[in-house]
């Protein structure tokens, strides 16, 4: 819910009373467009159904909002990019490590924002598979709440700091339960894909460890603003992703 200035007379959709004032008369839900008094917003349940006309883009949009608006289990950008990568890129050397041309990655982002699931990311449009891997990584980096959420972050880091393998898996299980359903399902789908990438390691040279280096800071961001603490966490972020890939079949 965001403070909003309404043009013309508006009534609260919770209490049905007039919303007074010239500016900032109430709050509006960015997902479904609900208009209510600020004081009434405390009584409104936080389980709205996002309306596509209020969800203007794919990138930088809250993951749960996006999947609810499109009636999908996972963001369509994740499904489409992974399908494309698996159909023609699994043997590509340095997959996910090699960067694609940034202007073309930006093109893919704009195509998804503009056309949604009708975006054309085929080989005819983007011959270099590193453009598609770059677009997928950018999607995760642009999320307002990371795929591994700030709430779950400390538990995931705790698992990487633990030396006992059984205890690591136990803590990871607990950490996964802290993720919202859409985040957990997207993480499961991504880890299953990255596991398949490692099966082609002889050709693509991408082990679980290498993918952990790439995806650690892409999927996780430290909640604290302390730069030193965030820097120290980078090696644990890498380990978290490496463990998730290696134990994908047990954890999900």
Account of the 3D structure:
The chain is mainly α and 252 residues long. It has 2 domains: 1-49, Wheat Germ Agglutinin (Isolectin 2), domain 1 (2-Layer Sandwich), CATH 3.30.60; 76-247, Rho GTPase activation protein (Phosphatidylinositol 3-kinase, Chain A). The protein is 51% helix and 3% strand. It is built from 11 helices and 3 strands, in the order E-E-E-H-H-H-H-H-H-H-H-H-H-H. It has helices at 63-69, 76-88, 102-115, 129-142, 153-161, 165-177, 181-198, 201-204, 208-219, 227-246, 248-251; strands spanning 2-4, 26-28, 35-36. It has a 3-stranded antiparallel sheet, with no helix packed on it. Helix 3 (102-115) packs across helix 4. It is globular and about 65 Å long. It starts with a strand and ends with a helix. The mean pLDDT is 90.
Fold topology:
Elements: E1 2-4, E2 26-28, E3 35-36, H1 63-69, H2 76-88, H3 102-115, H4 129-142, H5 153-161, H6 165-177, H7 181-198, H8 201-204, H9 208-219, H10 227-246, H11 248-251
Antiparallel strand pairs: 1-2, 2-3
Helix pairs in contact: 2-4, 3-4, 4-9, 5-6, 5-10, 7-10, 9-10
């Amino acid at each position: 819910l965001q403070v909003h200035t309404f043009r013309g007379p508006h009534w609260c959709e919770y209490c049905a009373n007039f919303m007074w004032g010239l500016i900032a008369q109430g709050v509006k839900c960015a997902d479904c467009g609900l208009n209510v008094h600020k004081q009434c917003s405390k009584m409104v349940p936080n389980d709205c159904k996002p309306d596509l006309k209020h969800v203007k883009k794919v990138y930088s949009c809250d993951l749960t909002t996006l999947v609810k608006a499109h009636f999908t289990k996972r963001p369509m950008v994740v499904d489409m990019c992974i399908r494309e990568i698996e159909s023609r890129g699994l043997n590509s050397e340095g997959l996910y490590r090699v960067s694609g041309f940034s202007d073309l990655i930006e093109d893919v982002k704009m195509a998804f924002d503009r056309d949604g699931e009708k975006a054309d990311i085929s080989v005819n449009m983007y011959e270099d598979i590193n453009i598609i891997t770059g677009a997928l990584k950018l999607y995760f980096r642009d999320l307002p709440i990371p795929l591994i959420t700030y709430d779950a972050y400390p538990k995931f880091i705790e698992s990487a700091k633990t030396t006992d393998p059984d205890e690591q898996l136990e803590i990871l299980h607990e950490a996964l339960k802290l993720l919202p359903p859409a985040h957990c399902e997207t993480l499961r789908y991504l880890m299953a894909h990255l596991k398949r990438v490692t099966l082609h390691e002889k050709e693509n040279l991408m082990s679980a460890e290498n993918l952990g280096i790439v995806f650690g800071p892409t999927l996780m961001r430290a909640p604290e603003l302390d730069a030193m603490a965030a820097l120290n966490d980078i090696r644990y972020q890498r380990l978290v992703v490496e463990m998730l890939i290696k134990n994908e079949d047990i954890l999900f």
